[in-house]
Amino acid sequence: MVSMQRVTLIGYGAIGRTLIARMAGHPTVRITHVVVSESKVAETQAKAGDGVVVSSTVPADTTLLLEAAGHGAIGCHVLPALERGIECAVLSVGALSEEGLPEKLADAAQRGRTRVHLLAGAIGGIDAIASARIAGLESVTYTGRKPPEGWRGSPAEQVTDLSAITEPTVILEATAREAAHLYPKNANVAATVSLAGLGLDATRVRLIADPTVTENIHEIDVRGAFGEMHITMRGKPLADNPKTSALTVLSALRFLHNRTALVTI
Prior knowledge:
Layout lengths: L4 E6 L3 H10 L5 E7 L5 H8 L4 E3 L8 E4 L4 H12 L3 E4 L10 H12 L3 E3 L7 H10 L1 E10 L9 H4 L9 E7 H7 L4 H10 L7 E6 L7 E8 L2 E8 L2 E2 L2 E5 H13 L7
Helix pairs in contact: 1-9, 3-4, 5-8, 7-8
């Protein structure tokens, strides 16, 4: 008989709320606690109801911690939890573009004798890229393509006149680390692809403002000893937050399901 897996969730935004709703009634996995900032505990508890316990700290008896709160949660909660021996899963992979943070996560996990899982989130093909890396990779390129309005409020506005673009325009060509620093809203996908493959400083990123599209499009080109791989994804947004891919939540749901499933894929 499979034992119940209890999960502490960091964050109660669109992703957190959707995860709790989708996991309700799961026979072997239950989100029992939610961690938010101290000022939001009472408000979040009122919204979440009696099904979960809301606090500002990770409970001492937590065995699995799932981060869905943004980059700041890595330092505040994930690193300390790893050192305490708590297994962790991270959705905000873009945070790892910060110099030295991947090493800090590994060191904390080693000291706590546990593991940290970096979830694929909004992008696919990560298993294939990581597998191909074993035989050796020659190049990995990630291209992020959005309509011009999708780049409002970003450094793209200093690069080109977004309102005047009539054809696809490259607004950045850089390493994954540089791209994540300049365009943090694209950091999760670029960082995930790079960490699965050649790393943050050897992965090339192209960001494009494209007036011919209406969706956010992810394109990955991988070449190596295994052959070649070309992936294009046109993801739909989460209903509660159009800036978040629905696949991000589904990635976390798959991870939680596989924790207790008798057969996993």
